[in-house]
Structures are given as structure tokens and as C-alpha cells.
From TrEMBL:
<feature type="transmembrane region" description="Helical">
    <location>
        <begin position="307"/>
        <end position="328"/>
    </location>
</feature>
<feature type="transmembrane region" description="Helical">
    <location>
        <begin position="182"/>
        <end position="201"/>
    </location>
</feature>
<dbReference type="InterPro" id="IPR047465">
    <property type="entry name" value="Dpy19L3"/>
</dbReference>
<keyword id="KW-0808">Transferase</keyword>
<protein>
    <submittedName>
        <fullName>D19L3 mannosyltransferase</fullName>
    </submittedName>
</protein>
<feature type="transmembrane region" description="Helical">
    <location>
        <begin position="208"/>
        <end position="224"/>
    </location>
</feature>
<keyword id="KW-0472">Membrane</keyword>
<feature type="transmembrane region" description="Helical">
    <location>
        <begin position="382"/>
        <end position="406"/>
    </location>
</feature>
<dbReference type="GO" id="GO:0000030">
    <property type="term" value="F:mannosyltransferase activity"/>
</dbReference>
<feature type="transmembrane region" description="Helical">
    <location>
        <begin position="455"/>
        <end position="479"/>
    </location>
</feature>
<feature type="transmembrane region" description="Helical">
    <location>
        <begin position="230"/>
        <end position="247"/>
    </location>
</feature>
<dbReference type="GO" id="GO:0005637">
    <property type="term" value="C:nuclear inner membrane"/>
</dbReference>
<keyword id="KW-0812">Transmembrane</keyword>
<dbReference type="Pfam" id="PF10034">
    <property type="entry name" value="Dpy19"/>
</dbReference>
<keyword id="KW-1133">Transmembrane helix</keyword>
<dbReference type="InterPro" id="IPR018732">
    <property type="entry name" value="Dpy-19/Dpy-19-like"/>
</dbReference>
<feature type="transmembrane region" description="Helical">
    <location>
        <begin position="427"/>
        <end position="449"/>
    </location>
</feature>
Length: 686
């Protein structure tokens, strides 16, 4: 019987592993096919392919292109470390400022592999990103499998991820975006942490798992500038569970250390990027470890005693974190991330602001609240219903376990009498389950408050819901409550329900997926193509262009011209520069605008009708409105204005320049126009 059971386990693991790999590869092919069908990517011109990498995606891809086209790897790296094309009249270190090591690595790999004759650089790049989707799906599959004990759960998680693609990923239309590089590694890290938190793990397995957690954490940190904020939430998960005695303290300490060491290693690779050193994550983790050393008896005493100690511990860690962070930022004179805190302050109603950068974020839909139609889409696949069904009993169980842990703590006189009760509670909520529960709750709160972060939650929602449907913990708790518990009933439910769910999803969504794969479109943006071709043909390679951040990223990628500003917004000087450049859409005199543009060495300025006459946002959120408010001017159109705003002495620059009045033509000459863009050359006055 023992030999038969062992063989069955080996067979199950083998089949489950093969299914995971196949699903991952199928997902990659599916995403790649959707991308090809949407743009007809294989048939359009190179300039059109590059234009399809919108906004910051184009900026990141331009560094890959730059490295591939460089005379040598050394010269390419030198061009990144001493870059004078991304920001005019300024030399910056791209490897320090931006997370582009993945572009560097891929470009070097493309140069040294014998594939140039068979594969264009752009395909090597996008296929790598689509390949990472396979890693992502496999990691989600494995996490669900580890939690539930059956790979059927992983299969359901992968199905939900694919059928809810609109809400779980956006890789097919924002390929080079940093999160598309980072989230697969984050999913691998969560899978490794889930395995690490298993009880009775052998020392050798524990060491290898810690190494896997470190590697995944390092790559996650290296590939996304917002890694520190995501890992701060993860650190809060560990902190909460450690305080409630729901995770082994030694393993939690290792995870704190891994987070900090991974981030510091990235800091070194990014030439000691000050934003990393000043991150709240480093301050928080250091504060937790210091506080734990000072407050040694946190997990001893009666319930009231422990609650008091816990409250004091939380206050001490919070105050110490803020103090350490403020001290680091003071020493380093760090202001790179101040716009994020201004945005958060305004978002959560902690004071109105006229700050241009904060309002720029507040007015973007991606940084708003999660739309309610998201839940209706997630409900179509029954994912949201199952998620809530699993979340409620697990949250109740976690609350009971936390109470029992606080009540029957180390040093309590009632420990001996309560051992059996505590063991029952611990079995009802394993450490890995507890971690994933608090993880999904906190990242759910993040997604609800900021729509752009929903992809961190919805993918984990697939994992958590599928785990619950196949879990002995969830069904054991429910059946015990209704007094119908038997091991046979649990086995039937945890295997039959997922199969029924898989059949339902396949029946309902397979026709839609087939229709989606057969639907053919083509990239079409003739105005932008015409602009890029004109720039390449009619301007010198050293020309400096000013305009919107989004458009200029494309100008750099398609033409290689020098920019005044760009979309990578994590630098105070760049934010101030962008606000100045955007005065082309404000109510300013031609002399003021000319002087501003000249200060950045501008040769040409591109005006976009879609911004000048914007209708996408409502009044108060149009770019021209944000500039008017920041400049103290009354906004255009019907509606209220704040009392202290005053009329401007000048008309709006982007509108008035088209009238070709002498006061404008003396400084600006129109050299190109189409239905969307107007390009003006600046006069060279002595």
C-alpha cells in the first residue's frame, strides 16, 4: 500500500507538472496570437510597429533598440550610462534612473546568439515577454496546487486567469511595460513563500526555497520601479501574521532580510539609486527587526497583556519607520518620490491640492477607484462569487485562530489546558493559507483604491478562489458547521465541484475565445506615421524636440532625436521640466513660452490638437485645466472656479499660435502639420 501510494503521488505530480507547462505555453501562444491579430504585426512597417509601443513602453523599448544597434556592447552600455539624448542639455545615467536591465540583458543575448538571420530584434523582445506569461501562469498554478493539495485547483486557476484576461493582464497591448516583466517573478516569489511556510520542511528544502525566494525577489525588484511599494504591502502581511503568531518567526525574519537584501542589491546595480535607499520598505523592515530586539516578550502573557504589548509594538514600529525614513531622506536630500505621497494625500481626502503632478495622477482613470463593471466581468466566469464564498469562512477562521493565539500564548497559565484547542485551530488555517489570505485582502484594498494595481489582485484572486473550491480546510469548516462532515463527502466535493466549474467555463467561453482568435484587425495611425517619417527625413539627428511626454517617447524610439522630457516620471527635476514644457498648452505669452523652450535647447515643438482641444476628460481634469489651476488662472468653459483664480492676460498658446500673428511668427515657424499634429521650429535669435 505504501509503495502504491508513493507511485500514485509520483504519477500525480508528473501529470500535474505536464499540465502546468502545457497551460503556460498555450497562454503564451494565445496572447501572442491576439497581439498579431489585433495589429497585423508581422505585416506592418517598422515605424508602425514602434508606434504601437505607446507612451512609456516606447521609451523602454528604445533602449533595447539602442543597445542592439550599437557598434559594440561596450559602446551601447556607455551610451546608457552617459545618456544625453533622453533629456536635452543634461547627461543622465539610464541604468540608475530607470529599470532597463532587462532590455540590456535581452539585447546582449540577441547579439551573441546566432538568431539574427531568422528573428528580428522586435520579435525576440516580444516573444520573451509572451514567454514570461507562461512562467506567470505556471507560478499561479503551482501556488494554488500547494495550497489545496491537488493540481486540479491549479488547472482551475489557470482557466480563470485566461478567461478573465481583460482584468488579469494587459500584456498584449502594453508589452514593454515594467509590470509585465515584474509580475511573473512576483508570482514565482509567492509560490516559493507558500512552499516555505509549509510545516515540517526539511532543512535542505528550506535552504533551496529561501534561495528561490531571494532570486524571485531580486528579479522582481530589478524590473519594476514600483517594487518597493508592492513589497511594503507584502512586509505588512508578514508583520500582521507574525504579531498574531500565525507564522513561524524565524521564517518571517528570513523573508524580511531577503526583501531588504534583494532591494539593496538592485540599489548597487542601479548605481546607488537614492529612491531605493529612501524607500519605506527598508525603513519598515529595519524598524521591525529593531523593535523585535527591544521588545523581547511580545508573545508572552495573558490576552490583555498581549493586546497591550501588541498595540505598543505597532506604534513603536510605525513611529520608528517614519523617523528612520525621514532621516534617510534628509541625509540623501531625496525628493524623487514626493509626488507619490502628494498624490496619496489628495486621493484619500487629506487636503485639496493644486500641485500639477498630483492632479495629473488624480485625473487619470488608471489611478482612480476600481470601476464596478470589473466585478460584473469577474462574475461572468463565477470567479468573484467563488472568491467571496471562500474569503468569508477563511477570514472568520483567521479571526478565531488569531484570538486563540493571543489568548493561549507562551507563558500563559492556561496553555496546558488549551493545547488541543489551539492545535485544532492551527490545523484549520495553515501558515501558507494564512499568508495568502492576508495577501489577497491587502492587495484587494490596493486594487479597489487604484485601478492600475488590480492586476496584482485579480491574478491572485484566481489562485485563492480555486484553492478554496478544492480545499479540505474550507469544506471541512463548512460541513462541520452544518454537521455533515465526513472525509468521503469532502473528497467528493473538492474533486467534483472543480470539474463542474471547468466544464462550465469551457462550455461558456470556448466559442468566445475561438471568435476572438479569428477576429483580424490592422494597426492604423497614419498621422503619427506621417509625423515620424517627416522628422526622420527633414530634421538633423541632433535636433531637440519638445512636446507631450507620451508622444516624445515615440519620437525617441522612431527617430532617435533628442527629447526635452519623457514619461518616466520618478525624478523631481524631470517633473519640473515637464510642467515648464507643458506651458505650450497654457495661457502664456509667446515670449514666455519661447524663453522656456530655449532654456532646454529646443529646436522644434510639437503641438497636439487632441491635448489643446481635449474632450476625453471632464472640465477640471483636462491638461489645460490643470495648467490653468497651477498657474492661478480661470479655466475655460462653463462651470465654477475657485475664488482666487484670475483671468490670464494672454490667450491659450496652442490655439493662438495657429493664427500666425507677428508676435508668434517672430519666434515660431510652422514647418509641418496634419490633422493631428503641428510642428514649429524655434527661431535662433542672437
Amino acid at each position: 500500500d505504501h509503495t502504491g501510494g508513493k507511485l500514485w503521488n509520483i504519477l500525480s505530480v508528473t501529470v500535474g507538472g505536464i499540465v502546468a507547462v502545457c497551460l503556460g505555453l498555450l497562454t503564451s501562444v494565445y496572447i501572442a496570437t491576439l497581439h498579431e491579430n489585433d495589429l497585423w504585426f508581422s505585416n506592418i512597417k517598422e515605424v508602425e510597429r514602434e508606434i504601437s509601443f505607446r507612451t512609456e513602453c516606447g521609451l523602454y523599448y528604445s533602449y533595447y533598440k539602442q543597445m542592439v544597434q550599437a557598434a559594440s556592447i561596450h559602446q551601447g552600455l556607455h551610451g546608457l550610462v552617459y545618456d544625453n539624448k533622453t533629456e536635452s542639455v543634461r547627461t543622465i545615467n539610464i541604468l540608475e534612473r530607470m529599470n532597463v536591465y532587462q532590455e540590456v540583458f535581452l539585447s546582449i543575448l540577441y547579439r551573441i546568439l546566432p538568431i539574427q538571420q531568422y528573428l528580428e530584434p522586435v520579435y525576440f523582445y516580444i516573444y520573451t515577454l509572451f514567454g514570461l506569461q507562461a512562467v506567470y501562469v505556471i507560478a499561479l498554478y503551482v501556488t494554488s496546487w500547494l495550497l489545496s493539495g491537488t493540481w486540479l485547483s491549479g488547472l482551475l486557476a489557470a482557466f480563470w486567469y485566461i478567461t478573465n484576461r481583460v482584468d488579469t493582464t494587459r500584456v498584449e497591448f502594453t508589452i514593454p511595460l515594467r509590470e509585465n516583466w515584474a509580475l511573473p517573478f512576483f508570482a514565482v516569489q509567492i509560490a516559493a513563500i507558500t512552499y516555505l511556510l509549509r510545516t515540517h520542511l526539511q532543512p535542505a528544502h528550506e535552504r533551496w526555497t529561501l534561495l528561490a525566494v531571494f532570486i524571485a525577489t531580486f528579479f522582481f525588484s530589478l524590473t519594476w520601479q514600483f517594487n518597493q511599494f508592492m513589497m511594503l504591502i507584502q512586509a505588512l502581511v508578514l508583520f500582521i501574521l507574525d504579531c498574531l503568531d500565525m507564522l513561524p518567526t524565524a521564517k518571517v525574519t528570513w523573508l524580511y532580510v531577503i526583501q531588504v537584501s534583494g532591494l539593496l542589491l538592485v540599489c548597487v546595480l542601479q548605481f546607488f539609486n537614492s529612491m531605493i535607499l529612501g524607500s519605506l520598505l527598508i525603513s519598515f523592515n529595519a524598524s521591525v527587526l529593531i523593535a523585535r530586539t527591544i521588545q523581547k516578550n511580545l508573545k508572552k502573557g495573558s490576552l490583555l497583556s498581549r493586546l497591550g504589548k501588541l498595540l505598543l509594538h505597532v506604534l513603536f514600529v510605525s513611529c520608528l519607520t517614519l523617523l528612520v525614513n525621514k532621516l534617510i531622506k534628509k541625509i540623501l536630500n531625496l525628493e524623487s518620490d514626493e509626488h507619490i505621497f502628494k498624490f496619496l494625500k489628495a486621493k484619500f481626502g487629506l487636503g485639496a491640492t493644486r500641485d500639477f503632478d498630483a492632479n495629473l495622477y488624480l485625473c487619470e482613470e488608471a489611478f482612480g477607484l476600481l470601476p464596478l463593471n470589473t466585478f460584473s466581468r469577474l462574475s461572468d466566469t463565477l470567479l468573484f462569487y467563488v472568491y467571496i464564498f471562500v474569503l468569508f469562512p477563511m477570514t472568520v477562521t483567521a479571526a478565531i485562530v488569531a484570538f486563540q493565539n493571543l489568548r493561549y500564548s507562551i507563558g500563559s497559565t492556561k496553555v496546558e489546558k488549551s493545547t488541543e484547542k489551539k492545535e485544532n485551530c492551527t490545523i484549520a488555517l495553515k501558515p501558507g493559507t494564512a499568508y495568502n489570505l492576508i495577501h489577497t485582502v491587502l492587495f484587494g484594498c490596493l486594487a479597489l483604491s487604484t485601478m492600475r494595481m488590480k492586476y496584482l489582485w485579480t491574478s491572485h484572486m484566481c489562485v485563492f478562489a480555486s484553492f478554496g473550491l478544492c480545499s479540505t480546510e474550507v469544506w471541512g469548516l463548512i460541513l462541520k458547521c452544518v454537521r455533515l462532515y465526513t472525509s468521503q463527502r469532502i473528497s467528493v466535493i473538492r474533486y467534483c465541484l472543480p470539474v463542474i466549474m471547468l466544464l462550465y467555463i469551457s462550455y461558456k467561453f470556448w466559442p468566445g475565445i475561438m471568435d476572438e482568435l479569428s477576429e483580424l484587425r490592422e494597426f492604423y495611425d497614419p498621422d503619427t506615421v506621417e509625423l515620424m517619417n517627416w522628422i526622420k527625413s527633414n530634421t538633423p539627428s541632433t535636433a531637440v524636440f519638445a512636446g507631450s511626454m507620451q508622444l516624445l517617447a515615440g519620437v525617441k524610439l522612431c527617430t532617435g532625436r533628442i527629447l526635452t522630457n519623457h514619461p518616466h516620471y520618478e525624478d523631481k527635476n524631470l517633473r519640473e521640466r515637464t510642467k515648464q514644457i507643458y506651458q505650450i498648452y497654457a495661457k502664456r505669452s509667446p515670449e514666455d513660452v519661447y524663453r522656456i523652450l530655449q532654456s532646454f535647447g529646443t529646436d522644434y515643438v510639437i503641438l497636439e490638437d487632441s491635448i489643446c482641444y481635449e474632450r476625453r476628460h471632464s472640465r477640471g481634469c483636462r491638461l489645460r485645466d490643470l495648467l490653468d489651476i497651477a498657474n492661478g488662472h480661470i479655466m475655460d468653459g462653463l462651470g465654477e472656479n475657485e475664488p482666487d483664480l484670475k483671468p490670464s492676460l494672454y490667450p491659450r498658446f496652442c490655439e493662438e499660435i495657429k493664427r500666425n500673428l507677428p508676435s508668434y511668427t517672430v519666434h515660431f515657424t510652422r514647418v509641418f502639420q496634419n490633422k493631428t499634429f503641428h510642428v514649429y521650429r524655434l527661431a535662433k535669435h542672437k
